Amino acid sequence: MLTIARTTELAKLREQAAQAKDAAARESSARRELAKLGEQLRVALVEKKQAEAETARAEAEARAVLERVQADQVGVCAGLRCTIAELRAELQQLRSAQPTVREELPEHTVLRFRTVGGGTTVVTGKPSTYWSYCQDKNVHGHDYAWKCVTCGDDSSSYTSHDLADMRRRSNEHAASCRAIPAGPGDTADAEKTGARS
Ligand SMILES: [Zn+2]
């Protein structure tokens, strides 16, 4: 009787031990599974971060390329504007600097003035026929006159022994004469009659 009871108890204990072992094995398996999932999650997180970093890098690169292209375009446009401005200035210069016929200066020219129109007035100083009456022929030894070789105006019959006086008159005409020097196509007559006003 006692033996039977012990045997039964023993069997029960064995069964419980086996159940406990099973439970431990299941728990261990579950732990392993959990650890595996945890690792997978960690890997997934790392990959996600890497992907985000990769995306950000690609975006930054694309933006940099775009900025470079835009900067290049700005540079090219600025260069073109610069070239256009230079060409315009050159054209302007060519237009304003029309080729002119070389103006013949009168005999005895002693002074030249550039007129506002780009022409020339001169002061001539012919050796005076009366110089012998003068004490200082360096001052009074010449008959000074002025003439605008561009428009044809001149001091007419008026002459002076005073160079300073004639210089002033010549300079005054130069300051108001707007006649422009004749171009290669102009005739001498057209120059004189057309320019005089
Ligand atoms: Zn003139």
Walk me through what this model shows.
There is one protein chain. With 197 residues, the chain is mainly alpha-helical. It is built from four helices and three strands. The chain is 61% helix and 11% strand. It has a three-stranded antiparallel sheet. It has helices at residues 2-96, 137-140, 163-176, 188-195, and strands spanning 109-114, 120-127, 142-148. The protein has two domains: 29-97; 109-195, no CATH class. The chain is rod-shaped, with a radius of gyration of 55 Å. The termini are far apart. The longest helix is centred in the N-terminal third of the chain and has 95 residues, at 2-96. Bound molecules: zinc ion. Zinc ion binds at residues 115, 119, 148, 150-151, 153, 173, 177, 179.
| Termini separation | 159 Å
Quaternary state of the chains: single chain
SS element count, helices = 4
Question: What topology, given as strand order, has the largest sheet?
Answer: 1-2-3
Structural class: mainly alpha
Ligands and ions found: zinc ion
Proportion of strand residues: 5-15%
Number of strands: 3
Poorly predicted segments? 193-197
Q: Major sheet: size, sense and barrel closure?
A: 3 strands, antiparallel
* Tertiary shape: rod-shaped
What string gives the helices and strands in order? HEEHEHH
Keywords:
single chain, disordered C terminus, 197 residues, 61% helix, 4 helices, three-stranded antiparallel sheet, 2 domains
Summarize the structure.
The protein has helices at residues 2-96, 137-140, 163-176, 188-195, and strands at 109-114, 120-127, 142-148. With 197 residues, the chain is mainly α. It folds into 2 domains: 29-97; 109-195, no CATH class.
